[in-house]
């Protein structure tokens, strides 16, 4: 039962909304967490969308930052049913014309597999791994005076470069492709500034704590976080899609795990003209198209590395991926797209009936696209795994428009809730003393439209929650 007043209210129960609610709860505050859907989790939901017994992650599937960033790993989530499982190979990148390449949990093993590029890889990623604890507060947070300026500067020299520049420092197709597959997680042209940062952070995080899978599905992480929140006195209300800030109970602090566009719709009448103008200028990126498949067996990859990998990057060489990602931003659909595949069931047998498997695959598409490219994704997988099509028992797809309908924060199918380019990495959603404060006292934004951006790490919510505590309590 919802009461008339709370110390703090958090609207939206994605990873950042859950994190913000828990941070506020830790302060001893009376906190209400509200979710528009019936199911907690935002991007951390799992459902049987193909056949009974096949459990598919709807959005987030593999979690490269969940154990390498400080907040979620600090909570006793195992007590609430959460188990992480680690694939033998973190990410594989098959190459048809050359030997495939892979990211392993071991920095040394990854470097050794790169041959003549091994030393270059260690020089690039090794310092980031060694200084991870010192640097995460600097590059996974709002713009501020760095705690480790010398170490951050050393990271920034490479990280701020376009991935297309950094790739030139590798000699082999494997070294270039590994960087390209990682940098393409940025969902922007690889010629953009700071796309190297995304790739470097993902690779380093793998060496720090792996790329784990939540046993039973990403929903298990959401359920564990909610279980911890409620067990410690938090209040939760699902099935309440907040459309106006005035419909909420009284509270000293209200935090929104929503996109800037939705924040304007819900609370725009509370904001200054300047802040509304800033939110109106916020840039969203391209969308995604996703396919979930129920399979009669494991994917018959030509690459032995891919058969053991939780994540597989498809699309070929660095130059091929660069071309494909550039075309998307021009509103075109490449014939040879970059496809990101997750095969959670190779490490988590609870995802499918015995002997069967699930597969999760998406590629980037122009914003707002409603074109069905299921066949393109299936053909791309078939190219690297002949016989794959014969294993398909059932499939279901989501277009960019479907993603926005599923979650209103995914504007145009943008699962990062805004472009993470150089202009918006640290200042999203607006250039302010604190990106989490709005112009209205007591109203905050805690979504992935704030630093450090997309991913299951909760740090946007952590920083927003701490800002509200500092300001009001």
From TrEMBL:
Give the source species: Cyclobacterium qasimii
Name this protein carries in UniProt? FAD-dependent oxidoreductase
From the broadest rank down, the organism's phylogenetic lineage runs:
Bacteria, Pseudomonadati, Bacteroidota, Cytophagia, Cytophagales
| Pfam families documented for this protein | NAD_binding_8 (PF13450)
Q: Entry's InterPro entries?
A: FAD/NAD-bd_sf
Q: Which residues cross the membrane?
A: none
């Amino acid at each position: 039962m919802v009461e008339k007043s709370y110390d703090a209210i958090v609207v939206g129960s994605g990873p950042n909304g859950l994190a913000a609610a828990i941070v506020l709860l830790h302060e001893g505050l009376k906190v209400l967490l509200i979710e528009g859907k019936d199911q907690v989790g935002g991007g951390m939901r799992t459902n049987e969308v193909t056949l009974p017994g096949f459990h598919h992650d709807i959005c987030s599937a593999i979690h490269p930052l969940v154990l390498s960033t400080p907040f979620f790993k600090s909570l006793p989530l195992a007590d609430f049913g959460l188990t992480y499982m680690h694939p033998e190979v973190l990410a594989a990148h098959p190459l048809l014309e050359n030997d495939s390449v892979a990211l392993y949990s071991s920095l040394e093993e990854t470097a050794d597999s790169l041959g003549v590029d091994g030393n270059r890889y260690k020089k690039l990623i090794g310092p980031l791994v060694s200084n991870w604890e010192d640097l995460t507060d600097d590059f996974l947070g709002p713009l501020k005076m760095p705690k480790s300026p010398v170490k951050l500067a050393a990271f920034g020299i490479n990280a701020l470069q376009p991935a297309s520049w950094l790739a030139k420092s590798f000699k082999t197709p494997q070294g270039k492709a590994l960087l390209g597959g990682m940098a393409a997680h940025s969902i922007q042209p690889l010629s953009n500034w700071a796309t190297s940062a995304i790739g470097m952070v993902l690779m380093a995080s793998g060496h720090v704590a792996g790329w784990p899978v939540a046993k039973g599905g990403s929903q298990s992480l959401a359920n564990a976080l909610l279980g911890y929140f409620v067990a410690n006195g938090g209040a939760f209300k699902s099935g309440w899609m907040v459309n106006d800030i005035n419909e909420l109970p009284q509270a000293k602090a209200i935090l929104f795990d929503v996109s800037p566009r939705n924040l304007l719709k819900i609370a725009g009448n509370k904001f200054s003209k300047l802040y509304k103008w800033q939110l109106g200028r916020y840039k969203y990126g391209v969308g995604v198209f996703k396919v979930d498949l129920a399979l009669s067996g494991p994917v018959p990859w030509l690459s032995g590395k891919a058969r053991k990998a939780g994540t597989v990057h498809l699309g070929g060489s660095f130059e091929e991926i660069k071309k494909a990602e550039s075309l998307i931003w021009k509103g075109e659909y490449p014939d040879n797209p970059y496809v990101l595949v997750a095969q959670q069931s190779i490490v988590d047998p609870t995802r499918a009936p015995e002997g069967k498997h699930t597969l999760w695959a998406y590629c980037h598409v122009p914003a707002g696209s409603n074109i069905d490219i299921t066949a393109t994704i299936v053909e791309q997988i078939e190219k690297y795994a002949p016989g794959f099509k014969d294993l398909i028992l059932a499939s279901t797809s989501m277009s960019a428009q479907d993603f926005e309908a599923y979650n209103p924060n995914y504007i145009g199918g943008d699962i990062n809730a805004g472009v993470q380019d150089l202009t918006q990495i640290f200042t999203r959603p607006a250039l302010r003393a604190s990106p989490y404060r709005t112009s209205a006292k007591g109203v905050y934004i805690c979504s992935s439209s704030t630093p450090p951006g997309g991913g299951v790490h909760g740090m946007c919510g952590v920083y927003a929650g701490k800002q509200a505590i500092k300001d009001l309590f």
